[in-house]
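Summary for the lay section of the report: proteins are chains of building blocks that fold into shapes. Here we show the chain for 50S ribosomal protein L2, large subunit ribosomal protein L2 and then a coded description of the shape we predicted for it.
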Amino acid sequence: MNPRDHPHGGGEGKSPTGMPPKTPWGKPAMGLVTRRRKTGGGLIVRSRRRKS
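The coded shape description reads as follows.
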C-alpha cells in the first residue's frame, strides 16, 4: 500500500503503522468520537397537540 492510498501506507515490507489509527481519509479512528452531538433536545418540553 502506497502512502497515497492510505495514511498507514508506505515503509519497507511489513512495517507497522507507527501512528494512531486513521481512516483512509485521514480522520481519527477507533475510540475517538468524530460526530457532532445533536443540539436542542433538552429545549423541547411538550409536543403540540394535533387537531382531530
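Put simply, here is one thing we learned. The chain has a mean pLDDT of 83.
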